[in-house]
Target: SlyX
Amino acid sequence: MTHELSPADLAQRLESLESRLAHQEHWLDTLDQAVVQQERRLDKLEQLSGLMRERLREQHQALQASDPQGGQRPEDNVPPHY
Model:
């Protein structure tokens, strides 16, 4: 019960498969480009995050060095009756 296709049917199937393959290759290339762009953005954001972390650390150290009370603020002191 094998059903043999005519040469015209085979040509049509082959053309359909080639068309699908071309479409999938196009979308694969598009997705690859998107991944590369996202990776670049992530790298930049990680670099920016590191710079911000370093700046915060520097500001915190500068604030502690300039604080005459050794890092304690008046609002941090709790009266003895609390």
Notes: The CA atoms of residues 5 and 57 lie 74 Å apart. The longest helix spans residues 7-66. The chain has one helix and no strands.
